[in-house]
Write a structure and sequence with these properties.
CATH class of the largest domain: Alpha Beta
Pathway: Cofactor biosynthesis; adenosylcobalamin biosynthesis
Keywords: Cobalamin biosynthesis, Methyltransferase, S-adenosyl-L-methionine, Transferase
InterPro entries: 4pyrrol_Mease, 4pyrrol_Methylase_sf, 4pyrrole_Mease_sub1, 4pyrrole_Mease_sub2, CobF
Largest sheet: 5 strands, parallel
Radius of gyration: 19 Å
CATH architecture of the largest domain: 3-Layer(aba) Sandwich
CATH topology of the largest domain: Cobalt-precorrin-4 Transmethylase, domain 1
Order of helices and strands: EHEHEHEHEHEHEEEHE
Shape: globular
Number of helices: 7
Number of strands: 10
Helix content: 25-40%
Number of domains: 2
Structural class: alpha/beta
Pfam family, one: TP_methylase
EC number: 2.1.1.152
Length: 251
């Protein structure tokens, strides 16, 4: 039996890692770190830094890196993602069987929190299909939405109003959700808000939240949309990757 703990590590600031997450790291027999290619080396570098700084000298935890399978780009997005998750589960199962043939505790460091637009839980649930008996636990982490609202010093919701959390793809395809006053947008490949009429909307945007390269822009969408697009393109070219999230609200 493998005891797998998905450990939320927040959005880039090592000080955001909880005490429970530190305990889970030090109790693990094996920590698996995914590599996502040279362009996103910052992501594995941060995980390496966390392991270096948070693992106790007496810890017997082994840290093993692996190359994450690539997702095929095709029109059938959900089908491509499903196959990609299956491939990742296969890699996880092989590493666990090879490195811990008698079972043990495995830790996975999850960017943000495993509950919010992260597929690690779905992938972990497929390990049984790969012949790996597993018990799953989660140590929650700070989400990008928490980091965004904290950085801008704003509440996530308008007074007594709900918030809808969606993706850039959905915002482009379906427009503004009719019953929402506030819409949080994640996993946007860039500028999905351009699908909306900017009049009467405010935006709070952030990239690299919690990291030393953090960038924030806010204001009426009609005034700052072009600035956000330009800054996003510049930052992506400079760093080779970008993670950003934003909150839209009716004024």
């Amino acid at each position: 039996m493998i005891h797998l703990t998905l450990i939320g590590i927040g959005t880039g600031n090592p000080e955001h890692v909880t005490l429970a997450a530190v305990r889970a790291l030090n109790q693990a027999d094996l920590i698996l770190l995914p590599r996502k290619g040279e362009a996103k080396s910052d992501l594995v570098d941060l995980r390496r830094l966390l392991c270096r700084d948070l693992l106790e000298a007496s810890s017997r935890t082994r840290v093993v890196e692996f190359d994450l399978p690539r997702r095929e780009a095709r029109a059938d997005y959900l089908g491509a993602v499903d196959e990609w998750h299956g491939a990742i589960a296969g890699v996880w199962a092989e590493l666990m069987a090879t490195r811990l043939p008698r079972g043990g505790r495995v830790g996975m460091l999850i960017w943000g929190d495993p509950s919010l637009y992260d597929s690690s839980l779905r992938i972990a649930q497929r390990l049984g299909d790969k012949g790996q008996a597993v018990e799953i636990r989660v140590e929650p982490g700070i989400t990008s939405l928490q980091a965004l609202t904290a950085a801008h010093r704003i509440p996530l919701n308008a007074l007594a109003e709900p918030v809808l959390i969606t993706t850039g793809r959905r915002l482009r395809e379906r427009g503004w959700p009719c019953d929402a006053e506030s819409v949080a947008v994640m996993l946007d490949s860039g500028g999905a808000f351009q699908a909306l009429s900017p009049e009467g909307l405010s935006i709070w945007w952030g990239a690299y939240l919690g990291m030393d390269k953090q960038c924030l822009i806010d204001g009426p969408l009609v005034d700052v949309a072009a600035t956000i697009l330009e800054r996003r393109a510049t930052l992506r070219e400079r760093h080779g990757w970008i993670m950003d999230v934003y909150l839209l609200r009716r004024m």
